[in-house]
Amino acid sequence: MRIDKEQIQSENQKNRSTHNDGFDFLSNTLTKKGLDVDKVVKQLSDFQVAIPSWALGAGGTRFGRFSFYGEPASLEQKIEDVGILHALTKTAGAISLHIPWDIPEDYNAIKELASANDLIFDAVNSNTFQDQKDAKESYRFGSLSNRSKAVRDQAVQHNIDVIKIGEKLGSKSLTVWLADGSNFPGQDNFQSALINTENSLKEIYDTLADDWKLFIEYKPYEPNFYSTVIQDWGTSFMLANACGEKAYTLVDLGHHLPNTNIEQIVSTLMLKGKLGGFHFNDSKYGDDDSTVGSVKPYALFLIFNELVYGMQNNPQNPYPAWMIDASHNIKDPMEDLMQSLEAIQEAYAKALLIDQEQLKMAQQENDVTLCQEILQNAYRTDVRPLLERARLENSGALSPLNTYRNLKVRESLIKERGKNSIATGL
Ligand code: PSV
Ligand code: MN
User: What share of the chain is helix, strand, coil (3-state, %, to 5)?
Assistant: First the structure.
């Protein structure tokens, strides 16, 4: 199914004057403070976040999976879902495929469908954390780090195949996340595992076209609970440097131990020109994959402060690839993704309000109180009218969530796909 502009516009009409009042008030206030409001709205419009193909269905818990009615059962339907998200939010202009969960059959048809939905293909993701049907070797004891050369070769070849799929779709990057590690002390030799991983990554890296990038994701634990080969940003950074200039670290917000200062990691990586990609989600305990901004919105804002600073001051760092990496066990995945997109845009907008010059001066004078005031003044501003204006100017919905509900999108999807369709993925 597809939502057309007219449906969105007639929904917008209902709240247009409330929006205008809110926007005019905020715009006047910010303009008086010396802010270029049009520029901020434009920056928000330009900010696009990829939706992963595995996020459109219901995710599982460690103990079970409860499917959500009307889930997309094919890649085509997943693209349609991202198309709906993008039509409403104008923020989800890309899809990120996970291989082998979503291998296209007819590449031209898939590309046409994506472009009809105004979508591009973002990073492709390999999967050596699950055994594939009919695969000769098993990843039970690791993939790129495995003691066995045959297993490593299979895992390297899989990544090369994923790059080839991505090339046919117009993707420009490969994201590698490894589940490799050990469950018990003594099970593995840390040094051999790291050396094997580095060599395998180099083999993959060597096949990359000049305009491609390799993103190396890290995570401290899970699915292994004693050690993980690429456990932290430092290990990823070291491996990226060993591979070469097209290799970068990817930060996934959920992949940190509690209370880690993620904004400082972002800042360091951008200074070194090595922050390649970013996975958004939120968490309370571990890699919870909760809706972005649902638990720690202030931390997200502080991270965006560093991202904005880096984008403005670190030309050595490429523009990062943004993606939501969340899972939805009890909410409608589409609604959850809209909430995540809104939270991302909100944190970004608030970070754009920070008066960087004033902050620099306050830091210079060691006026710690003022530094905090500057950040919190920006954080406490209700920026939602700016987000609405960005969507409105691009023919998106003033309120994506309400429009989705008022247009009964999920009900139509259930009618089309049936109640029991199941999405491939986690
Ligand atoms: C692993 O936890 C991860 O963050 C990686 O990005 C995977 O590709 C994704 O989640 C889905 O398993
Ligand atoms: Mn991730």
Answer: 50, 10, 40
Residue closest to 350 by CA, chosen among 291, 399, 314, 303: 303
Q: Are 43 and 128 in contact (CB under 8 A)?
A: no
**Cβ 122 under 6 angstroms from ligand 1:** no
Eight-state DSSP code of residue 71: -
| Ligand 1 centroid – CA 399 distance (Å) | 29
C-alpha distances in angstroms, 210 versus 126, 172, 250?
19, 10, 19
How confident is the model over 320-372, as pLDDT tens digits?
Answer: 999 999 988 899 999 999 999 999 999 999 999 999 999 999 999 999 999 99
Closest-CA residue, ligand 1 atom 2, reads 287
Ligand 1 pocket member 27 (CB < 6 A): no
Q: What is the pLDDT of residues 92-121, one digit of tens each?
A: 999 999 999 999 999 999 999 999 999 999
Q: Verify whether ligand 1 is closer than 6 Å to residue 278 (CB atom).
A: no
Ligand 1 site, residue 188, Cβ cutoff 6 A: no
Question: pTM for this structure?
Answer: 0.97
